[in-house]
């Protein structure tokens, strides 16, 4: 095999979210890794035969790591495939996606982990890392074989959007995971308290005549889980938190030194319950979009570093399950392709610095998962993105690369175009 040509990204605004340092210069890529970077790396310094990309002041940063993305395979190829999900990811600047385990069959066997990895190798454009289930069949009764699943390549354990009702099963899962130094990711929702709720409980739900999900349905499970983490000492990540009550509990747990992290979705950071408007089902999500006060608390927690990770919560749903009355429609939205541009709303509004946003989308998820990615440093993997944070565009669902088009940002005016996505030194997307 011929060695790939050296690649030099010149005249870029270099943003390293791991250190918060911004500088002007270039990046030299050799053999899939960052060989050098900084002001001295210019087109004139390029090695012979190198491909030179003139960035014209665009941002060059580590590729994004999305910790929650539904890829469809196996069993839901009508909603998404690894090929279509990774094409959407590459167009959105996401170079690593963590595949949710709620497939059919669920990812509870080493053979299914192997299947996902092989399909990703054969048809994927970006890195795909499978999550395996916390419990067999995601049924919440018997815990999965974490040791064998980890050996097969699972990076974390989660039952998707099925919260574990049984505290004893959760305790066993945390204890077993601790023995394998495995990461437990849990979706915090008291299913009994959430009941048949379809949006955030409050005045707006009452006016719309829709049943509500109280924020306590999330906070109660977060409280329980954190007490079990204190009991077991296991590594725990709350997949999506949306309520100030949950943030208060997580802040207290971190102050006590517990091995706890949390994420939230780009939807909950940039939208609120009012966006549902006239029963727009593309904004029916789990957890539901919250009150503006809760969104503001989430943004403040992100800026302070309390919220570790931003996920796309990419959840494609076909037309038949979305073109229904709001109460009957499936929850979920596509988001991997628009995650960065939507997040840049927070940068343009002055709520979050660019390095802070990128840290939550790349560095912190990579650290939590134990990956090399997420850094702009010599020797780091050359998973890189080039984007113009100011270029405006209107989201056209028909142009999205996902198989399904259920975006909550349809016709939204966003800023921030990805122009180049590189994985292991190879371009996987060019605008």
TrEMBL record:
Pfam families: Amidohydro_3, DHOase. Its EC number is 3.5.2.3. InterPro entries: Amidohydro_3, DHOase, DHOase/Allantoinase_Hydrolase, DHOase_cat, Metal-dep_hydrolase_composite, Metal_Hydrolase. Keywords: Hydrolase, Pyrimidine biosynthesis, Zinc. It comes from the Bacteria. This is Dihydroorotase. PANTHER family: ALLANTOINASE. It comes from Methylosinus trichosporium (strain ATCC 35070 / NCIMB 11131 / UNIQEM 75 / OB3b). CDD domains: DHOase_IIa (cd01317). SUPFAM superfamilies: Composite domain of metallo-dependent hydrolases (SSF51338), Metallo-dependent hydrolases (SSF51556). Residues 349-429 form the Amidohydrolase domain. GO terms for cellular component: cytoplasm. GO terms for biological process: purine nucleobase catabolic process; pyrimidine nucleotide biosynthetic process. Transmembrane segments: none annotated. Residues 57-242 form the Dihydroorotase catalytic domain. One of its GO terms (molecular function) is metal ion binding.
């Amino acid at each position: 095999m011929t060695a790939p040509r050296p690649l030099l990204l010149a005249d870029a605004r270099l943003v390293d979210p791991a250190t918060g340092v911004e500088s002007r210069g270039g990046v030299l890529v050799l053999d899939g890794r960052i060989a050098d970077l900084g002001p001295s790396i210019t087109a004139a310094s390029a090695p012979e035969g190198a491909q030179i990309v003139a960035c014209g002041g665009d941002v060059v940063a580590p590729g994004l790591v999305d910790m929650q993305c539904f890829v469809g395979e196996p069993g839901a190829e009508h909603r998404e495939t690894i090929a279509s999900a990774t094409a959407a990811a590459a167009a959105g600047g996401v170079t690593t996606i963590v595949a949710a385990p709620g497939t059919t069959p669920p990812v509870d066997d080493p053979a299914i982990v192997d299947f996902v990895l092989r399909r990703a190798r054969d048809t994927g454009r970006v890195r795909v890392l499978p999550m395996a289930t916390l419990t067999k069949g995601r049924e919440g009764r018997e815990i999965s074989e974490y040791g064998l699943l980890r050996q097969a390549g699972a990076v974390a354990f989660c039952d998707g959007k099925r919260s574990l009702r049984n505290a004893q099963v959760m305790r066993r899962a945390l204890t077993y995971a601790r023995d394998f130094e495995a990461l437990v990711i849990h979706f915090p929702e008291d299913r009994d308290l959430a009941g048949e709720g379809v949006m955030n409980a409050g005045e707006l739900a009452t006016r719309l005549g829709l049943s509500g999900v109280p924020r306590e349905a999330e906070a109660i499970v977060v409280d329980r889980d954190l007490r079990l983490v204190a009991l077991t000492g296991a590594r725990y990540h709350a997949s999506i938190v949306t309520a100030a009550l949950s943030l208060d509990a997580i802040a207290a747990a971190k102050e006590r030194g517990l091995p706890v992290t949390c994420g939230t979705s780009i939807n909950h950071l940039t939208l609120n319950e009012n966006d549902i408007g006239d029963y727009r089902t593309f904004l029916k999500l789990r957890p539901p979009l919250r009150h503006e006060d809760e969104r503001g608390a989430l943004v403040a927690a992100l800026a302070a570093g309390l919220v570790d990770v931003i996920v796309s919560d990419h959840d494609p749903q076909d037309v038949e399950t979305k073109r229904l009355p709001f109460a009957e429609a499936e929850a979920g939205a596509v988001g991997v392709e628009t995650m960065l541009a939507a997040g840049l709303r927070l940068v343009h509004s002055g709520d979050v610095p660019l390095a802070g946003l990128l840290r939550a989308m790349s560095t912190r998820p990579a650290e939590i998962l134990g990956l090399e990615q997420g850094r702009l440093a010599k020797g780091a993997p050359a998973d890189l993105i080039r984007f113009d944070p100011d270029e405006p565009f209107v989201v056209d669902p028909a142009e999205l690369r996902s198989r399904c088009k259920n975006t909550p940002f349809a016709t939204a005016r966003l800023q921030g175009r990805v122009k180049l996505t590189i994985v292991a030194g190879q371009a996987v997307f060019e605008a």
